[in-house]
Amino acid sequence: MGKFIVASLKSHGIYIDPGTQLYMRFDVFSKELESTVYTVFRKIDKILYVPIECKREINDFVEDIFRVAMQFHVAGMQKINPKMTVKECLEDFMIQYRMDDFGFEVESLRKVLTRNKEYKIKRMQNHTPFYNRS
Q1: With a cut of 70, which residues of the chain have pLDDT below it?
Q2: pTM of the model
């Protein structure tokens, strides 16, 4: 994930010195993921200005990882216990990620899961990696 973030920043003209550490903070506002990138250099934290398009790419990437994790969680739970419903699997997923604290609902996650199965996460399949861009 770190390599993706650095590549995304680089593709938008933001270069990170090798000795600089990065970390991200993710917040959920109105069910939307919002990221903030910080640099740590010589033990000083500083918010890194990230262009909105780059921020969207990073947020989309994290959201895709989340969607895949949700798909595998449901599939794994149903493989272990075939009698579990999708709703029960999603409730378990929500508990593990404390999603109910942010206003998410099982039905909205079920719709996301159904869309993922129908479209097979087109954004990930059609996405050109940053390291292949000219």
Answers
A1: 28-34, 116-134
A2: 0.69
